[in-house]
Task: structure prediction
Amino acid sequence: MTKNNNAKNENSLLYLNGINKSFPGVQALSNAKLSLSAGSVTALIGENGAGKSTIVKILTGIYQPDSGEIFFNGSSVKFYSAVDALKIGITAIHQETVLFDELTVAENIFLGNAPINKFGMIDLGKQSKKALEILQSINADIEPNMLLRDLGIASRHLVAIARALSVDTKVVIMDEPTAALSFKEIQEIFTLIKQLKKQGKAILFISHKFDEIFHIADHFTVFRDGEFIADGNMADASQDKLVSLMVGRSVDQIFPKRKPKLGRKIFSVSEFSHPTEFADINFTLREGEILGFYGLVGAGRSELMQAIFGITRAHTGQLTIEGDPVYVTAPSKAVKEGIVYVPEDRGTQGTIKPIPIYQNITLPSLAAVSKAGFLQEVEEFQLSREYTQKLDLRAASLDTKVENLSGGNQQKIVIAKWLATKPRIIILDEPTKGVDIGSKAAVHEFMGNLAANGLAVIMVSSEIPEILGMSDRIIVMRDGKIVSEHKKNSVTPEILIKHAAGLMEP
Ligand SMILES: Nc1ncnc2c1ncn2[C@@H]1O[C@H](COP(=O)(O)OP(=O)(O)OP(=O)(O)O)[C@@H](O)[C@H]1O
Ligand SMILES: [Mg+2]
Result:
């Protein structure tokens, strides 16, 4: 074996070189390299589809590279399965985490690695106790014997992290660990990363959020279109420089200038209450308006939107469209009334992964693309092409199965699919979560165009710049209630945070 004499190799705990990986129609990685050092955090950045998750899967033995080498502690290693990578001490928290709904939290944490008693059976008591210890070490207030199914997105993420920490690891990989988390939980993840760093672990951190990258990373590596572009120290980097390395051009991050043309009052929600999730919700919405809903994770925003869309029904109160009462007892009814909802959890709620892009997009609009009950493929393709182009989707073709798209591109499919139904009211729940900085601008511009064309838009977002940059009016929710309402330009980030956190009386 000839060793690559790149200087990086000397200090690196883990070093990948010349990695190629292709899928039918896509070169996901070409001649990619990456180096991780003990006791430091490396941020891997790149646009949606740049190959970040693919290299994580190669590092964890889920995919085998077509060619290229992996060095661990200076010697060449090969992973034939996920177990090989785990044995060496590489663990990952994946972007789409595989956890099991019907198992308990403790069972999920120790799956395949459970403590065994002297009878050769899983030692349930010890398993719960050890699970609790790990959960407490990351400040996760989760009961180990709960069923996973009963946890929200943020808690599930913490379970995935606990799972990664249940084995003795040397390398910890986090693929967008903060995407679903609230401010407080993100701080806890950072505390955890700092602890891991002190223990001498090498950490790979993937995120689309630059504030996080600048806060936590020591080094950066940039991928573009599957290729290594640059690496260096964060101390020498600026956001502008990193963005232009990622995108290959400079990106205008200013929110689109909009002159809202508010039309008729189209939608109203009154005395809307749910036994546990929200209460006394009253608001109205006009055509051409973007109404932002801000709040901390758990404030009840998503639950409210899901009730409006007819996903949940245990509520009282009244919805009207153009003054007429509407009874939305199921999502199909909502779509018929012209209301659509793009969910936050686009992984499980959003798409049917094993079928092609174009079929996913046309699914809720079948009437528009059928003739006498027969699907028209040409129309299906046209409709899909129109919306995927608008959203800057990166895919080999519209025949590609959704499961083979990168995380961010899967999210664009969900947005496209609901827009293709030509709604009058669209509810976007965290519309740019997991979307890279270049496409983010495309989504924002697109959202502005929707409003300009008379659509009424509700945007739930936990990102203050997005809330302030896009909304004509902002409603803040806390503990299931509306606590304040603000006009555009009449509010600061501090005020929003204080209302959301209950530090300011309305
Ligand atoms: N199993 C697969 N089959 C076919 N194509 C795939 C598969 N996995 C990934 N790809 C393709 O490889 C490319 C890289 O995808 P990858 O998931 O690594 O991107 P990413 O950088 O993680 O993006 P994101 O920021 O959106 O998560 C994409 O074009 C994707 O569609
Ligand atoms: Mg990814």
Remarks:
- Residues 183-198 form the longest helix (16 residues).
- The pocket of magnesium ion (ligand 2) is lined by residues 52-53, 95, 175, 406-407 (CB under 6 Å).
- Residues 7-247 form a domain with the Rossmann fold fold (CATH 3.40.50.300).
